[in-house]
Amino acid sequence: MPRYAWSNCLAVNLLLAQQHPLLSFVQFRDEYVDESLRADGRGLDVPPSQCPVCERNVTPDIRCRDCVGRTLCCTECACSLHARTPLHSVERWNGSFFRRTTLADLGLSVQLGHSPGAICRFRTSPRKKFTVIHTNGIHAITLYFCGCGLNHSVPPRSQLRRFGWWPATPLEPLTAATEEVLKQFHLLNLQGNTTGYDFYRSLELYTDNTGLTPIVDRLASFMSMVRQYRHIKMLKRSARGHSVEGVSGTKPGECAVLCPACPQPGLNLPHDWESAPEDQRWLFRRIVAIDANFRLKNRMRSSNAVDPGLGTGFSYFVEQDGYNEHVAKFATQEEISTCSGFAAIANASTKNTKGLRSTGVGAISCAKHQFWLPNGMGDLQRGERYCNMDYIFLSGIRGLERQQLLISYDIACQWSRNLWDRMEAFPQNLRLSIPPCDVDFGIPKFHMQAHGEDCQTPYNLHLKRVGMTDGEGPERNWSVINGKASSTKEMGPGGRHDTLDDACGHANWRKVVNMGSSVVRRMKEAVANAAAHIEVFEDFTARLIQERLEQVKEWVGLVEAWDAGDHAENPYASEKEKSTVAEVRLQLAEEEAARILSGEVDESAPRRLNFLMLGLEIEESQYSFTVRDKTTLQSAQTQEARTSILRQVLKFRSHQEACMPQVATYFDIDDTTSAHRAESIALYMPSTFSNEDRNRFCSPDLVRMEARLRYAHACDALDDLRRQLRLRTYFNQWKIKNVTGQNPNTRARGLQSRVEVKVRAAAARYRRCRAAYLALSGSGDWERRLRVLEDGDIRGLGERAVRAQEEEELARIRGWLDESVRVAAGGASTGDSRQKPSWLWFSVHVSADGADPGLHDAEWARARARAKRWHEEVLQIQQEMENIKRYCTALADRWEGASRDRNADRVPDEVTGEGLRAYAFRQSDMFCRMRDAFDNLWIFVGQDAAVLLSRHPAVQYPQQITTSP
Q: What is the mean pLDDT of residues 539-567?
């Protein structure tokens, strides 16, 4: 290559190197390091013998790190300039570098009660080394209290408060914190779960990170000021300072932030709401959710006498005196039982209660918008007991009347029983004043998957007029305040209650502020889904009418009767196989008895059923050895189990000689002497033979009997597999959300392992029975009910899978409408992160003629329910928009009235009265602006909802159906 070419390449490389971002950063870094080093110098561009502020011939050797520009000045000017900012950090040039000093060392003092820089002639003796905690560190200042006639009656604490500082004690304060640092920590604690210890230690490091400067420890004082600050803020924001009764007249729950969207008479409902038509009363129904959280434990630290709450009962926690008195009456009460095994893992988490004052917290919240309810939270002493949860529930909805109520609880199926009987033990002011006919119960949608079949319909929120409420609001609420678990675990009872009350209030207020955007998001989703589901349902119904009009009319009658309260026949229940093992055994026994009565003589007939049942039992016992732990400790138990199987096999052989006499002569079945191989002994049941050998060794009646038992066992194994998968899914989710620590995790993993063993056992039992039935009966339509179970099919329904299931059902319905979609393989793909549910979660009914797989009234009813729920969601959000605007108007009017209602003799002076009026007008203006902002934000989604409701005022049926919708 020529030399000039090398030169050109070098020039290009140098140009690229100069433009390379990494090299540019290196240059940028070097320049800023140089500038930082230059900033540590004295700044020689200013004449060293003249102060740039006062222009006197004084050496400027003081600079402030908090003032803009860090201009050098003399000592006198530094004190004069910082008369209004006495908490700035200053440094003095010592001839070589700047060394930290304080304004107090320079001679600056702070005089309270007068304008900055003024001196009170009657000031008190100086408080030297008065500690002030600020956002930029911990400062020691010289402080004077005013003692002149203007402020002779103002105590020191009030002088500090008027100066913007919060005193650590009301008597002779020597420590204070600025409102800025208290507000900063308050927000950091609420938003980022920053602990008081870490925040205060960071201020110490900000003050001096070398450990060479002694700093007084005021952590205890700071935490005391924080508690006072947030308590006073709560009272101030709830208008207790404007109330004639004052703080002492605060009623239970009066300081809580209420839900602006939930229907609340006298606050956000129209005056004529009680005269609304019957089919619209559900819009004014309250929907609440109950749950318990076992992460919010509390150790036995301090006591209520030593550490009382500043406002326990004012906002979210129940009143402690009545609550503790009620719970003490039920010291030996057990936890609430459940039909789905939820209590197992909860008990594992709360098993060790030694040294704990509280094992967790129970709470009631608004199910739709996740607002904590006033007085709806209480400590749990030993898991979820009726005495705790009943009191928390009744305290949270105290005062509710004339409204319908729906309660969502993950164990509602058990808790709702005898609720009115248990209510007799409560005082009259806590008893529910709503008649039982207006109270309904539901189970959260995700928790529903772990419940038994009997709970799937009566407590299913998808089948109730609640819109798309899923009832899982408490789980989302716990995720917000679980960050407080580590700090509140070591607190005293009063400090813990104040901290959790504050966290709940912050969570509620943030929901109020974000209500505008959340309504927009929910309405967009509701309108889109309502339009899609209503269209699909109406088209689906029209297509079915063309083929089976009378049957559709029958289905319409069933679902309307169910909605009206007639639950004699469940239209939402899938077709279920009736061939359970118990029923088949009963049928076979009755058939044997009928043969005997008819005179048929067969010596082996009485033994056939026992022979087959014993064989199935031995198969299950032999399988247990494949999952048995191979440990030395369990060797004795393993040998005992083998001996038990041998006894069963010997009994089985005696039955086999009578039922299958030729087997003993054809095969060598004397294999019971090898005790160490009891789990591998072959049984030679009819299903193990080929067709030719089966006809030779077995009677046709015996083959049919085993086939029926195998089919029944396979169906039961599927039901058991579904139940265990529900438990496995729930346990995994519950462990992630609630279990922390080595011991609780170990116990939880033990429960998970036991459930996993049961899952594998149920799957293996199904596979054995299906293979045997296939060998006995051959292929047929039954294979559409009992499919081949692959390893990938053994998966539960999680939150994603539940939604995927609904989408799959919607795709199946669309498939019946569009032939091209039905032919397409698998319908719409959900991707790896949204897997379609396994086939075992779908109950596919096969009619007698083998037609219409999966097409029955339950699927049509579910499609109708989905369309109605989304349609109700649009109506509900539309009503909530009006409720929220009325709520803001009511709060604005209430604050405006508060500016006039304060009794004149409760106002110490005109300045305080002016402050009361100013704060009330500011709060009133805030709610007015909030209402107007929400109204402007909701214009377009409100129009979309109106268009949808004009096209679909209700989920209707085609005109061919004469039954009224």
A: 80
Distance, in Å, from the CA atom of 182 to the CA atom of 226, rounded to the nearest integer, reads 6
Determine if residue 265 is left, alpha or beta; phi over 0 gives left, psi from -120 to 50 gives alpha, anything else beta.
Answer: beta
Phi, psi of 781 (to 5 degrees): -65, -20
Residue owning tokens 């377009």 = 940
Q: Which residue has the tokens 């999966």?
A: 854
Using one digit for the tens of pLDDT, what is the confidence trace for 833-850?
334 446 665 443 333 333
Contacts of 419 by beta carbon, 8 Å cutoff, 6+ apart: 390
Helix (H) or strand (E) holding 492: none
Q: What is the pLDDT of residues 610-666, one digit of tens each?
A: 777 888 887 877 777 665 555 544 566 677 777 777 887 878 777 777 777 777 666
Give the pairing of strands 98-101 and 90-93: antiparallel
Query: What pLDDT digit, counting tens, does each position of 375-409 carry?
Result: 999 999 888 888 999 999 999 999 888 899 999 99
Structure tokens that stand for 143 in this block: 């402080």
Residue 266 CA, distance from chain mean position: 30
Distance CA(108)–CA(64), nearest Å, equals 14
- Look at residues 490, 577, 548 and name the one whose alpha carbon lies nearest to residue 196: 490
Instruction: From 710, 691, 725, 859, select the one nearest 782 (Cα to Cα).
Output: 710
User: What's the gap between Cα 574 and its chain centre?
Assistant: 30
3-state secondary structure of 439: strand
Q: CA torsion, points 353, 358, 359, 362, in degrees to nearest 10?
A: 160
Residue 879 has which token pair? 């009503």
Domain extents in the chain: 1-39, 43-107, 114-237, 252-513, 549-564+856-951, 581-796
d(CA 293, CA 503): 15
What would the pLDDT profile of 578-611 be if each residue is shown by its tens digit? 446 777 667 667 766 666 666 554 555 556 777 7
Instruction: Tell me if 774 sits within 8 A of 768, measured CB to CB.
Output: no
